[in-house]
Amino acid sequence: MYMLALGPFPFGTSTAGYDKLQRSMQFKHAAAVRVGDRDAYQKLGPGEEQINLAGIVAPSVTGTLASITRLEDMGRGGEAYLLVDGAGYVYGTYHIDSLQTTQRGHFADGTPRLVEFSLTLTRDDSMPANEKPETSQQAAK
Q1: How far apart are alpha carbons 80 and 34 in whole angstroms?
Q2: What is the rounded CA–CA span in Å between residue 69 and residue 141?
Q3: Among 69, 71, 85, which residue's Cα sits nearest to residue 120?
Q4: How far apart are CA 93 and CA 43, in angstroms?
Q5: Strand 18-32 relative to strand 112-123: parallel, antiparallel, unpaired?
Q6: Among 5, 75, 90, 120, which residue is least crowded by beta carbons within 10 Å?
Q7: pTM of the predicted model over 0.90
Q8: What is the DSSP letter of 102?
Q9: What contacts 135, CB < 8 A, 6 or more positions away?
Q10: DSSP letter string, 20-84
Q11: Cα 50 from Cα 41, distance rounded (Å)
Q12: What's the CA gap between 71 and 83, in Å, rounded?
């Protein structure tokens, strides 16, 4: 079972688990100036929507360094992916806006013992989703 899936990438203890999910939504309204009264507002539609995930990969305990590389590759590709949580809630289609990593406690060969990551996803309804999320049965194969 996974916490969240971004297209083909499942977030969980075997890949890259997160301990913080922050969602930011904006709603657009336009103001119409009225003489002698307060402005009147009209809803224009949804604004920007972002999700920030923060977590840790510690290969000897949880996750893999290859998962971070896979997220980098997905971000470089610039495609949008369907975002679904483990309970089946569909957030929508998102692309990777940014990925920040901090490495700590390196082995003698320079391999990090721990990588903290922060991933920013931006909703992108203008692009069709590239791939459907894996089910837990597909990921187990």
Answers
A1: 41
A2: 21
A3: 71
A4: 23
A5: unpaired
A6: 90
A7: no
A8: E
A9: none
A10: EEEEEEEEEEEEE--TTSPPEEEEEEEEEEEEEEEEEEBTTTB--HHHHHHHHHHHHHT-EEEEE
A11: 24
A12: 14
Q: Tell me the C-alpha to C-alpha distance, in Å, between residue 12 and each of 9, 62, 85, 86, 138.
A: 10, 9, 11, 10, 14
Token pair belonging to 116: 């903290």
Token pair belonging to 24: 């930011």
Q: How far is CA 34 from the centre of its chain?
A: 42
**At residue 5, what is the residue type?**
A
- Please give the C-alpha separations between residue 127 and each of 50, 79, 97, 130, in angstroms, as whole numbers: 16, 8, 14, 8
